[in-house]
Design a protein that fits this description.
By secondary structure, the protein is mainly alpha-helical. The chain has helices at 2-12, 15-32, 39-46, 55-80, 89-100, 104-140, 143-157, 165-179, 213-235, 250-255, 257-272, 277-292, 304-328, 334-345, 354-357, 359-387, 395-414, 417-436, 440-463, 475-506, and strands at residues 182-183, 190-191, 194-197, 200-203. Keywords: Membrane, Transmembrane, Transmembrane helix.
Length: 507
């Protein structure tokens, strides 16, 4: 406790540190809310300037940006069906339908409160158990366990956003196929960067880098939403979003208390594992809430529990992601890799010795993340009262701005024009997917987890001398794979039963 108090005093006892804290908090929230131009963009811009900063100020700045940026993406997800970052994609599923029903304030209020709750809980767990948890995670989770976890995640999330289980799985398979475009993770062999389509030969070295998921997300959510709204306006059937300032009541929060606790543990567990992080945490949190809810039919139509589940889980992953970084020197994602770079710039190497050699730096990081998540409550609720008024702007004025920001976000990612083309093609495909009942979220999930899963599977097979049964010789991997098979089997049985029941009603 005294270490935490000392870190807090270092943070708030220095006017310069306070200024950096506030700028990081506001900057993270603003950049997190801009589709494509997210907290990673802000981090990349600021990283060179940290060379001349105090080490504690530099690490604290990026820690605050991390916490605020994960929350910021929820705002555009709820108001415009455009997630500011991949980890906010599941928030769209129920957040935007709530906006259409005039409950935007309630949805953002839930996102604010649950983001803070998940982040604070994760920060507390991070402060109390960093060394022990990180050591256990690295010992217990090798490539086999990570592949099994990803397989389980795909199994439980396959039907998200689809009208039927079969369409959900087909969407995920399409995402997995797209994930194979680029370069083989083992041999470095190019795949699908040349060939012929409809008799036309093509060759593109741009495809050697693969299809990135950010342009796909911007296309499926931002561009397809613009197309959908434009078509609705043309047909005279557009349902205009309503600005609302009603916040969730204490009784509504109490009714989803189990979902909050479950999502905290899901997010924390996912955050500990390098390379998994907040995106899988959000999808797992949402899918588990859907499976356990008594109101399954309301999910995707404006269910508050859906917003609570995804935003609690993705913010709970932030503090957990710092555990392997600080205790073992293993970054769990792009922004934590930047934080590791800051340590190295200032002559420090993250790992067990950092708790001895630079304990004050570690604890100011812990304190900054704790207080940043608490500040999200006050800044977020204040922001809610102003940002919902954007919904009163006519869509014909908003649409060009949305497309411009999305295009900048897609191009700025890798400075490749092909990413802009991918975004617009994904936008057209996303519009068609909505019309036919397939799942854009399933494709995105397959694309994101496909790359991670293929890499983990390749490493696993090499370690096991290409004996697939080796997965079942590791208890955690075996347990996750068996659970995934049970989930798939149960889903098929339930889908067949529901189909037979519907046929019986029609007869």
């Amino acid at each position: 406790m005294e270490h935490f108090i000392g870190g807090t005093m270092m943070l708030f006892g220095d006017p310069q540190a306070i200024l950096i804290f506030v700028l990081g908090l506001v900057g993270g929230m603003l950049f997190g809310a801009i589709p494509g131009v997210n907290m990673l963009t802000l981090g990349a811009v600021l990283l060179p300037f940290t060379i001349n900063m105090n080490a504690s100020h530099a690490v604290m700045l990026f820690s605050v940006i991390y916490c605020a940026g994960v929350f910021g993406g929820a705002i555009t997800a709820i108001l415009f069906n455009i997630p500011g970052a991949p980890e906010n994609a599941p928030t769209c599923f129920d957040g935007y339908p709530m906006t259409l029903k005039g409950q935007s304030g309630k949805a953002i209020g839930a996102a604010v409160s649950c983001s803070a709750l998940g982040g604070v809980a994760s920060a507390i767990l991070m402060m109390t158990a960093t060394g022990a948890i990180a050591g256990w995670a690295v010992r217990a989770f090798g490539p086999q366990e990570i592949f099994a976890l990803i397989f389980f995640g795909l199994a439980v999330s396959a039907s998200i956003g689809a009208k039927t289980l079969w369409k959900g799985w087909l969407s995920v398979f399409v995402g997995l196929i797209i994930a194979t475009i680029g370069t083989d993770p083992v041999g470095g062999v190019p795949r699908f960067n040349e060939g012929s389509v409809f008799g036309l030969e093509y060759q593109s070295y741009y495809l050697s880098a693969g299809i990135h998921f950010i342009p796909m997300i911007l296309g499926f959510f931002a561009v397809s939403e613009v197309i959908t709204q434009a078509m609705s306006i043309a047909e005279g059937t557009r349902e205009r979003p309503k600005a609302g300032l009603e916040f969730p009541t204490l009784s509504e929060f109490w009714s989803v208390r189990v979902t909050m606790v479950r999502s905290i543990f899901i997010g924390f567990f996912a955050g500990i594992l390098p390379g998994i992080g907040a995106t899988l945490a959000a999808f797992l949190g949402y899918s588990q809430a859907h499976r356990a809810s008594k109101n399954k039919a309301n999910f995707g139509k404006g269910e508050l529990e859906g917003v609570v589940a995804s935003e609690t889980a993705n913010n709970a992953a932030t503090g957990a992601a710092m555990i392997p970084l600080l205790a073992l020197g293993l970054p769990g994602g792009a922004l934590t890799a930047m934080i590791m770079g800051i340590f190295q710039i200032h002559g420090m190497e993250p790992g067990p010795l950092i708790f001895i050699n630079s304990s004050d730096l570690v604890w100011i990081t812990f304190a900054a993340m704790f207080w940043a998540n608490l500040c999200i409550v006050f800044l977020g609720w204040l922001q809610t009262k102003t940002v919902v008024h954007i919904l009163r702007v006519p869509f014909r004025w908003l649409a060009p701005g949305i497309l411009l920001l999305a295009t900048i976000g897609a191009y700025a990612l890798r400075n490749l024009v092909i990413d802009v083309w991918v975004m617009f093609l994904a936008g057209i495909a996303g519009y068609l997917l909505r019309k036919t009942g397939y799942s854009a979220a399933g494709i995105v999930l397959g694309l994101i987890l496909g790359k991670l899963g293929e890499s983990a599977f390749s490493k696993s097979m090499q370690l096991m001398d290409y004996d697939f049964l080796g997965f079942f010789q590791r208890p955690i991997a075996a347990g996750l794979l068996i659970l995934a098979v049970i989930v798939i089997t149960t889903s098929i049985i339930n889908e067949i039963r529901d189909t037979d029941f519907q046929k019986a009603l029609m007869d």
